[in-house]
Write a structure and sequence with these properties.
This protein is an alpha+beta fold. The chain has helices spanning 2-84, 94-106, 253-301, 338-347, 351-370, 390-403, 422-434, 451-454, 466-469, 479-491, 504-512, 529-538, and strands spanning 112-117, 120-124, 127-134, 140-141, 147-152, 163-167, 171-176, 190-196, 202-206, 225-230, 233-239, 245-251, 305-314, 319-331, 334-336, 377-382, 410-415, 438-444, 461-464, 495-498, 517-518, 527-528. The structure holds guanosine-5'-monophosphate (2 copies) and manganese (II) ion.
Length: 548
């Protein structure tokens, strides 16, 4: 027996080595993912933020250019309208000159206004122009009927200075080409332009304005604006409501990249910090699992696992008919319940080591039971992993052989989860039943399986979960579910054990429903082996123990 246990432990240690390296692999993968994902996300976020910021800036510039252009056009219109009402306009008299002077000084976007005759400016705020300034042919007629020249030279200005000259046949206005696009630019790489929709003429521009930025501008509706990317530049276009003008602002690709790295410098460290925290957390979680598994293995070596026995009674007369074997871990004087360690053991795939230990503990008790001539049984819990090992069958077989117990006195309990891998479970159940061992489904109703599905297995007993037993005799809406389970189990000729019976009333109703067996604190708490055996021995052979 001892040699067998050692062999078993040896086999499990190697399989554990594999599992541990797999766990380490998973941990490293988790850490990498936990770090990388927030960093990538923060980069994406920085890019989006930079793009949005660039679009916002370009939009503001375009709106400013449009405002200036519209103001210039508005001032020209207003000036022309006032002049048209002046009586001595043809004489270029002092009244006219005063008015012209007033315009020149008050109008921020207009250089000067003149009176036109024969396509020449022959009167300005300086008085009669001698010689008159020839206007030359117009480039195009604006939407408001103005003759437009977009690149005029003026005789008295520097040769490299160009002007926009607007006239309506009677008056002319001279606008400095830079004025509409003369926004105070707070950053490099900004290009501004005003484009006429009449012929797509560039009226004014500054910076390294790329004509490609005009794309689609002629399809904008009045007051419509939009942003787009052209060759890596962020472009904003904004069409005037009143005039056939589109203002355009474009930002250099470099300014987008600068913005992006500025954002990234803030966001990536935050992403990295989040990632490191996540990784730390993932690592701790994995290590906690690993250390619990290690502690279980150490506990097995130090022989800290033992079992208790909770009697299962015949509800008809409350006599002990069998007992469920429940594992306990006494660690440094502290009792740890299986709810806490079975899950970790399953995770680390070391449940079979626990199962083997449980059968070692149970074996002498089974040997004692073999001496009685009743059918008293012990019911041992198996986990899903036990169903995947032929070793489990070997253990059952060995225990039956060595103890001389009749096979039906040994039961195994498998939770619904154990049946998830249907093919394996079916085969295992069949082979265990071939040994004569009885098979119970544990915690029935808490998993996902339907009873219909379970009928395809050859089972002996259904253990009705405490959750349903709790509703028996209460007026909970689910109380009838327990009754249906009982009815269905009977229809399938399954034995039944009601688990977690705590109240007299429940026991009475369950007996009334002809549920044959019950288990719960009402009848007995789980008992240490010596107490359990003492109570068992007190009863006369051939009769079951009186639970009272
Ligand atoms: O023993 P307790 O009263 O804490 O039971 C808690 C859970 O642990 C129950 O679901 C029970 O089925 C399970 N359990 C108890 N003993 C064992 C055991 O030996 N092996 C396995 N796999 N599960 C057990
Ligand atoms: O294997 P299973 O899940 O059936 O394990 C039975 C569990 O129910 C064990 O944890 C056992 O200690 C517990 N138990 C047994 N009887 C009662 C009872 O009457 N009340 C409560 N609350 N728990 C019980
Ligand atoms: Mn159980």
């Amino acid at each position: 027996m001892d040699a067998g246990a050692d062999d078993d432990a040896g086999a499990d240690v190697t399989s554990l080595g594999f599992n541990r390296s797999r766990l380490v692999g998973i941990t490293i993968a988790l850490i990498v993912v936990a770090t990388a994902v927030p960093v990538v996300l923060s980069l994406v976020l920085a890019r989006e933020q930079a793009r949005a910021e660039q679009e916002r800036i370009a939009t503001i510039y375009a709106a400013d250019v449009l405002r200036r252009s519209e103001a210039a056009a508005g001032q020209i219109e207003a000036a022309f309208a006032r002049l048209a009402r002046m009586p001595d306009i043809d004489t270029c008299g002092p009244q006219v000159r005063d008015a012209l002077q007033g315009f020149d000084t008050s109008m921020s976007y207009v250089q000067f206004i003149g009176v036109v005759r024969d396509n020449r400016i022959d009167c300005s705020s300086y008085g009669p122009q001698v010689p008159p300034v020839a206007l030359g042919p117009a480039d195009y007629i604006s939407a408001t009927g103005m003759n437009m020249r977009r690149d005029a030279e003026l005789p008295y200005a520097d040769a490299d200075k160009r002007f926009i000259v607007v006239d309506n046949g009677r008056f002319a206005a001279v606008v400095h080409k830079q004025l509409p696009v003369d926004a105070t630019i707070g950053q490099p790489g900004v290009a501004l332009a005003v484009v006429s929709l009449r012929r797509g003429y560039l009226l004014a521009s500054n910076g390294a304005f790329d004509p490609a930025s005009r794309v689609g501008g002629n399809r904008l509706k009045p007051d419509q604006r939009r942003t787009l990317m052209v060759d890596g530049r962020t472009v904003a276009q904004h069409r005037s409501t009143r005039y056939a003008l589109v203002a355009i602002a474009s930002l250099d690709p470099r300014s987008y990249h600068t913005a992006m790295w500025r954002m990234a410098r803030v966001m990536v460290p935050i992403g990295l910090a989040v990632g490191v925290l996540l990784a730390y957390w993932a690592n701790r979680l994995a290590r906690a699992q690993m250390t619990l598994a290690a502690a279980i293995r150490a506990g097995l070596l130090r022989d800290e696992f033992f079992v208790v026995y909770q009697p299962i009674v015949r509800l008809r007369d409350r006599r002990w008919a069998g007992a469920e074997v429940l594992v306990r871990w006494s660690r440094a004087g502290q009792m740890i319940r299986p709810d806490l360690f079975i899950a970790a053991a399953e995770e680390a795939q070391i449940v079979p080591m626990i199962t083997a230990r449980v059968f070692e503990r149970v074996e002498p008790v089974l040997a004692r039971l073999a001496g009685r001539d009743d059918d008293f049984f012990l019911s041992v819990n198996l986990s899903a992993q036990d169903l995947h090992r032929d070793e489990t069958l070997a253990i059952l077989h060995g225990v039956l052989q060595r103890t001389g117990i009749r096979p039906h006195q040994l039961h195994v309990e498998i939770t619904e989860r154990g049946f998830a891998d249907t093919a394996t479970a079916r085969q295992m159940v069949q082979r265990m039943r071939e040994l004569g061992v009885r098979v119970s489904i544990d915690d029935f109703g808490t998993g996902y399986s339907s009873l219909a599905e379970l009928t395809t297995f050859d089972l002996d007993t259904l253990k009705i979960d405490k959750a349903f037993v709790d509703t028996v005799g209460s007026d909970a809406v689910t109380s009838h579910v327990a009754f249906h389970i009982v009815e269905m189990a009977r229809g399938l000729s399954l034995e039944m054990v009601a688990e977690g019976v705590e109240e007299e009333r429940q026991a009475a109703i369950l007996a009334d429903w002809r549920v044959p067996y019950g288990q719960g604190w009402l009848f007995s708490y789980p008992l240490p082996a010596d107490e359990f055996l003492a109570r068992l021995a007190d009863a006369a052979p051939g009769s079951v123990v009186d639970a009272a």
